[in-house]
Amino acid sequence: MANNKVEEIIKKFGKHEKDTGSCEVQIAILTEEIINLTKHLQKHPKDYNSKRGLILKIAQRRKLLKYLEKKSVTRYKKLKDLLKL
Description:
Elements: H1 3-13, H2 23-43, H3 48-71, H4 73-83
Helix pairs in contact: 1-2, 2-3, 3-4
């Protein structure tokens, strides 16, 4: 994923411009990577390494979403609406 796209996501979801560790930013970046990998796998269905990477990213996002829901339901719902999950 391009650096400018990551910076854009950080500006939109982060608390400040260097905020790369908050749950919202991590989930948004993972979502963008999942979208890109899904498009790639539609063109290259036998790319099993990318398919494995996609499954791992989905699992990581699921864990982060579960953590965020436990920590703050309002932030979880807001993020889910923004990302259309």
